[in-house]
Amino acid sequence: MDFSSFLTSLGTSFLIFVLLMLLFTWLSRKPGNVVVYYPNRILKGLDPWDAYGGSRTRNPFAWIGEAMSATEQDVISMSGFDTAVYFVFLSTVLRILVLSSIVLLPMLLPVAVTDDSVKSTTATTSNGTFNDLDKLSMGNIRRRSPRLWAFLIATYWVSFVTYYLLWKAYKYVSVLRADTLMSSEAKPEQFVILVRDIPLALRGQTRKEQVDSYFNTIYPQTFYRSMVVTDNKEVNKIWEELEGYKKKLAHAKAIYAESRRTGKPEARPTNKTGFLGLFGAKVDSIEYYKEKINELIPKLKSEQNLTLREKQQDAALVFFTNRVTAASAAQSLHDQMVDKWTVTDAPEPRQLLWNNLKIKFFQRQVRQFVVYVIVALAILFYMIPIGFISALTTLDNLKKLLPFVKPVVNLKALRTVLEAFLPQIALIIFLALLPKFLLILSKAEGIPSVSHAVRAASGKYFYFTMLNVFIGVTVGGTLFSTLKTIEKNPNSVVTILANGLPGNATFFLTLVALKFFVGYGLELSRIVPLIIYHLKRKYLCKTEAELVEAWYPGDLKYGTRVPGDMLIVTIVLCYSVIAPLILPFGVVYFGLGWLVLRNQALKVYVPSYESYGRMWPHMHSRILAALIIYQVTMFGYFGAKKFVYVPFLIPLPILSLVFGYACSRKFYRFFRDMALEVACHDLNQIPNMDQVFRSFIPPCLRSKELDDDEFEDALSP
Amino acid sequence: MDFSSFLTSLGTSFLIFVLLMLLFTWLSRKPGNVVVYYPNRILKGLDPWDAYGGSRTRNPFAWIGEAMSATEQDVISMSGFDTAVYFVFLSTVLRILVLSSIVLLPMLLPVAVTDDSVKSTTATTSNGTFNDLDKLSMGNIRRRSPRLWAFLIATYWVSFVTYYLLWKAYKYVSVLRADTLMSSEAKPEQFVILVRDIPLALRGQTRKEQVDSYFNTIYPQTFYRSMVVTDNKEVNKIWEELEGYKKKLAHAKAIYAESRRTGKPEARPTNKTGFLGLFGAKVDSIEYYKEKINELIPKLKSEQNLTLREKQQDAALVFFTNRVTAASAAQSLHDQMVDKWTVTDAPEPRQLLWNNLKIKFFQRQVRQFVVYVIVALAILFYMIPIGFISALTTLDNLKKLLPFVKPVVNLKALRTVLEAFLPQIALIIFLALLPKFLLILSKAEGIPSVSHAVRAASGKYFYFTMLNVFIGVTVGGTLFSTLKTIEKNPNSVVTILANGLPGNATFFLTLVALKFFVGYGLELSRIVPLIIYHLKRKYLCKTEAELVEAWYPGDLKYGTRVPGDMLIVTIVLCYSVIAPLILPFGVVYFGLGWLVLRNQALKVYVPSYESYGRMWPHMHSRILAALIIYQVTMFGYFGAKKFVYVPFLIPLPILSLVFGYACSRKFYRFFRDMALEVACHDLNQIPNMDQVFRSFIPPCLRSKELDDDEFEDALSP
Predict the structure, then answer these.
(1) Contact flag B677-A174 (C-beta cutoff 8 Å)
(2) What is the reported pLDDT for B126?
(3) pLDDT band at A181, cuts 50/70/90?
(4) How far is the alpha carbon of A179 from chain B, nearest alpha carbon, in Å?
(5) pLDDT single digits (tens) A284-293
(6) Residue A676 and residue B333: Cβ atoms within 8 Å?
(7) pLDDT of residue A654 exceeding 80
(8) Do B337 and A662 make contact, defined as CB atoms within 8 angstroms?
(9) Across the interface, which of B219, B341, B675 has its CB nearest the CB of A335?
(10) Less Cβ around it within 10 Å: N or C end of chain B?
């Protein structure tokens, strides 16, 4: 790729972004779109346009002002603590990159541009990745040049800036977490612990009696009651069927009401009873659904009773009347065999994965191991196709392989655009397929809560991204282009890797630019959800509930955002000293991301769970991992430059490991366990324990028909 | 070493053992020696000879019957739980070796002896380590022989026997620990937690107020009181000086009384006041010491007050009125910063290392790291001398290096004995120097209790033993003798190692025999303590207290015993298949050890601390480590035998790791933390909390002169 195609790519990206932003300004003004652009405010019962005293001054940049002026507490109250932690992550990386830029750009660019290694050697220009940008990179420095000292100092500067800001951020998040957790509003899950691996009950003892007597002995004063986990598969199926019919009934009724309004009262809606409503006998929908519902209600009730009585599992939720006891109980060993009566703090009711609770201790270990093996295989076998894709998707290769694209490609303008985007688009689509698969795998490990499963999936996605995209593209790209050299001398791999990194700088530059301009442009403008919403509204939705379902925004999905961001962090850090020009791109990526997502967090996305920042330690250690990759890369690259003072770089990775160890020793445990000092803060009001207990009953077991007393009886048979 | 010198060595060892046992029988009958052979019974207030209905039937083997018939509860009540766990370790290893012997000896010896690889190849006979025993070892099997299948099956048998018995033993110890801990007698330390890293107090708040208010907020119902740890260095010095003078005064008075009895009433004892009592003015001892004591008592009192008021440290002992709360508090995170208000369960008062309590969290980490580096260096630098020693201490080498020993060595009988013992004795003396040094290092890590420091030292000693003795001798011995082969072809090291192992079998056989016959013989007969006691009694001791001090036996010192035993376990396991003849030696070692030490535990040693079996997980994982070394060695050795089915051995080390992981997941945490189920068992009587509190006051701060109320005031100023 030459310099002009790089500029074209950049220009196109920017143009798309500007277009999308204007589209956003225009579309978000229309009252009909308000549910797409302000769903979070609507669901919270706020006036969509009256944010932060902005009234209706719909100038194109009003949202920027609003995003900037929103405080952390606004974010927490509108979008939850996890989202606030995600912004701490974004702003920490942003600060690292800004502080690095301030020193690196004025120091390194003049040093690089006034040397002339690129012109004088032929080796660098021959491998096809040379472009005018190389003059601004470390590649332009001659070997053994004393100018390399500037780059060595820069390497240290970036490292220390990262340590300082990461330490500050960890401390900040830790304090913020404590403040949020010690808030005087009682959160139901703070009074509950989750007990798994309950051993077999004694003869003549029900599961519930067993649990109650066990915890009553240990906590005679603070034990409130217990809820034995049941196998809800059957009852949940019936309940979902029932809910489905209820929705369909409402839908059919709305169609009928509409057709009566439009003057065709005889046209009652009908449907077929067979597969997908395409086959079978034609029936009157309203009558049919009513009948089905009447059939299912008693069935559900009897199944609920059956489930509560017969399908008790060896897991339970235990309720305490006291936050401190619950926090302390969740951390303490209860049985002398560690694999029995295992306790953890209970997650929020809405994010409990009920079906996982019954999985046994050692089965969880085995499942985890099997999942890791599957993920490792997935990472290994995706490596090959990605290597091929990055080697094949040059236009010259495409023309050779697919001769029929030649006429299209030969158009000058199109060719430049294609050349710029082709490899990156392949990569991005490729990565979009993965997260769902990884989330399913993580849930299969036996993890008890959604947020934990998301964290686990996010970790797997991170490893995938790092190994396959970053290392795969870097090594793959250079290995394909320098295969002949390696064949002759296998030991040259290290040198080739270090030499090959700067060659891929422009690839990654365009990737970053594409991600922030097009990615954040699409994010802000919400084109896709908007189109889907309008299509649904026009052709499918008949009832109010269906309409809400059509525009319901979902959550921020930081589980997949963080690995994507981490790829950018790693790329930018690794190239920060080699090609400092990447730093402004990184700054724009994280700056723009912070702005756009703050707008989205405040106005669009609705959090679907809350883990009180448990993601932070992972973000922290992954930034540190990126830093270590960068430090090792620099060690290799300085070695390739034959710089004799390269041993000065050895302390850096060691320092990073020590720093990471110190951080995890000082802060980590509070992100896993609740500190008693935090739990013992006074509550505004003594919580209604019955309400706490009720909030944990799964929806399929809740029932208006079931009387309260009956439920009590059913739960304590 | 040839076969006859091996037999001589064995015979000599056995002769020494028989002699020592007869000596024991004879000496232990004499009433004057009763304090040397039965101190534990005397201190417990029992009749020394009336053990287990044995009355005075002093037949030479009575002690064996008594050791055999003693139950586990006898051992626990006489010598503590840690000793009982040590016997579980001994009997587990014994069972592993017996079960292995039963299969391996009849299966492998006939297979080995009927092959003839040793005769047919010249390589094995030429390196000087060949002897008649080789015919009974795997070295006698031809390469690629199908007979190797028998040895492969034997490798699996030993592994599975070990897994099975280790699992059973871990479970057994775990249940035993629970039973002992849940006993209805209240142990003071079960009501106490140790708090370290207390942050700076608020202005105008004393340390004690700070601690009290902190724990009162979290545990309003169960908090009893706290004791702030003080810097006792000064007061302890004065106290020890005072105690020293008190002893000297009693000694002088006893001398004076004696001289008056013998008719020389004018001869009052005198001493010199200068260095070591050798220089300075001559004074009347009784007057001088009385004066000194009268000087020191008020000094001690004022220093006690000063210490309690001014020298408070940032650590404290916190007392609860409830076992469950204390157990739960010791496991819970208290402050959101993990390095503040760190809690652990309190050790027994007698084993608290007061000076370590004040060391800060991160300083402990740094100290630990520094100590590990020092230990690693020690291990590395001792490697070289040990390698030399094992290469030099052959008689031929000695004769070359020290020509003047030639006439001594040329005596046939002496020569055989020397040849048998020389290398082993050098090694044993060498190892005896180390444990003290390692214990000092472990205490310098900042560990709060003696038992923990002993465990840490024991671990270091284990690594030292394994690396320096086992691997050092095996590799060193073979490397020196086959240096020329390696010079020509460095890749042959693996083959040489695998070939060299059987060559060292006789060395290790003699080592094991020496250790059990001479080592346990000396242990049983207590010759050295006996001589020391009689010398002291005759020349030094004048008072009753001095006499008790002279025969006070100390504890079992399993901290250094276990690494020694582990060396034997590793040796016997590694050679179990290669030279199965080592198995009976191992069986005798652990059988005799079990017997002799059981006698000593019941009658001699007095436990100086109690950790309720916390050593067990380390013993367990070290046996497993020995097993893995054995499995890897076997893999190498089968490879050297060019056995094509050698990959069948690969699953074994993996299985061992999985087994170790499963064990530690299932059992380990209960050995670190107290299970609440165990803690919640009812107590016989509600403990006197004031007594519990008082038991934790260090001796130098206890004082008759200080009134109770004063002490209260002083502790809560």
Answers:
(1) no
(2) 35
(3) confident
(4) 10
(5) 888 888 888 8
(6) yes
(7) yes
(8) no
(9) B675
(10) C
Distance CA A688, CA B353 (A): 48
With b meaning 16 or more CB within 10 Å and e meaning fewer, what string describes A533-551? beeeeeeebbbeebbeebb
Stretch 614-643 of chain A: residues touching chain B, C-beta under 8 Å = none
Q: How far lies B14's CA from each of B188, B517, B521, in Å? A: 47, 6, 9
- Confidence band, pLDDT 50/70/90 cuts, at residue A622: very high
A682 touches chain B (CB under 8 A): no
Q: Which among A314, A538, A552, A566 has a CA at the least distance from the CA of A458?
A: A566
Q: Which residue in chain B has the smallest CA separation from A176?
A: B336
User: Phi and psi at residue B131, in whole multiples of 5°?
Assistant: -150, 180
Among chain B residues, CA nearest to A362: B662
> CA A265 to CA A348: how far, in whole Å?
48
Give me the residue from A218, A329, A669 closest to B338, CB to CB: A669
Instruction: Report the pLDDT value the prediction gives residue A560, as an integer from 0 to 100.
Output: 83
Matching residue, tokens 């025999």: B513
Residues of chain B with pLDDT under 50: 52-55, 120-130, 477-483, 705-711, 713-714, 716-717
User: Which residues are CB-neighbours of A214 under 8 A, at least 6 positions away?
Assistant: A341, B677
CA–CA min distance A669, chain B (Å) = 6
Across chain A, mean pLDDT equals 81
B677 and A341 in contact by Cβ < 8 A? Answer: yes
**pLDDT score for B124:** 43
Phi first, then psi, for residue A318 (nearest 5°) are -115, 130
Tell me if chain B has a CB within 8 Å of the CB of A243.
no
pLDDT at A705: 45
On whether any CB of chain B is under 8 Å from the CB of A440, the answer is no
| Residue A70: strand, helix, or coil | coil
Contact A471, A462 (CB under 8 A): no
Q: How confident is the model at residue A525 (pLDDT cuts 50, 70, 90)?
A: confident
Distances (CA, A) of B633 to B246, B465, B498, B544, B578: 60, 18, 7, 57, 10
Residue A205, phi-psi category: left (phi > 0), alpha (psi -120 to 50), beta (remainder): beta
Arithmetic mean of pLDDT, A256-266: 76
Nearest chain A residue to B214 by CA: give it: A677
Candidates A7, A675, A5; CA nearest to A345 is A675
pLDDT digits (tens, 9 = 90+) for A440-476: 999 999 999 999 999 999 999 888 887 777 766 666 5
Q: Which of A174, A332, A662 sits opposite B331 (nearest CB)?
A: A332
Establish if A677 touches chain B: CB-CB under 8 angstroms.
yes
H and E: helices and strands count for chain B: 35, 6
Question: Quick check: B534 and B37 in contact, CB under 8 A?
Answer: no
Q: How confident is the model at residue A421 (pLDDT cuts 50, 70, 90)?
A: low
pLDDT of residue A85 exceeding 90, the answer is yes
How many whole angstroms from its chain centre is CA B177? 19
Q: Which residues of B touch A336 (CB under 8 A)?
A: 174-175, 177-178, 670, 675, 677-678
Residues of chain A in contact with residue B660, where contact means CB-CB under 8 angstroms, are none
Q: Which uninterrupted H or E stretch holds B313?
A: strand B312-320
H or E segment at A196? strand A192-196
What pLDDT is attached to residue B594?
92
Q: Does the beta carbon of B174 lie under 8 angstroms from any beta carbon of chain A? A: yes
* Nearest-CA distance B506 → chain A (Å): 43
pLDDT digits (tens, 9 = 90+) for A183-222: 777 788 889 999 999 998 888 888 888 999 999 989 988 8
Specify the 3-state DSSP secondary structure of B317.
strand
| B170 part of contact set with chain A, CB < 8 Å | no
